[in-house]
Fold this sequence. Notes:
By secondary structure, this protein is an alpha/beta fold. It is built from 12 helices and 5 strands.
Amino acid sequence: MFVHGLATNGALWRNVIEQLAPISRCVAIDLPAHGGSQARKDASVSGMADAVAELCDGLGLGQVDLIGNDTGGAVGQIFAARHPERLRSLTLTNCDTEGNFPPPGFAPIVETARRGELAPVLVAIAGDPAQWPAGPLAVGYQDPAGVPEDVWRAYYTPAGGTLERALDFERILAALDPADLSAAQSGLAALTVPTLIVWGTADEAFGVKWAQELQALIPGARDVIEVDGGKLFFPEERPADLVPHLRRFWNR
């Protein structure tokens, strides 16, 4: 079960899934108000964790290997704390953590959303493909110019293709609350589910120290595997730096 973060969608995992599909059933969720999914009344990350649980129920899944990136890692942590029995394993790549949710550099965008001023900006970006390679998601890539235009479209259009969608996305950012992740800490501190942490070292928002704090918090966590020079979206951009670790981890 692959869980993406804010402003991307299940397409983030396409290159990883292409390599893993021959050995495992792979499901990449579009979180509420992302990709092809509709918004929910509860726009919080806790509500997103509920959406993951509901998808598992709807697909009749038992235990899953859950993999999270960016805000999807926060969603995965909340899901793990609430439903440890539903996990065979947990893998976290660069993502929000207690004490860094949302990261300080993202705070101005959150405040813009809370003032109700973000939606028109999203509509403008989504309507101008020339902006996409230099848009707000570009910071997550080593080589934004190498991202195909159809992938940019898959990300930006659901977030800002219409004012209604942009307002839904604005609600999600406005609802980001550190308390949601803080509430998961006791559950994570008791989590013995095997946990793999794979972390890009060049991510400005989620430095390696946050991976180390996750390792110290979660009893089931093994060593932190560092992806040299990897940025936030390294699972999309550099799948070969994640897939072999997942294969070995799952085989064990």
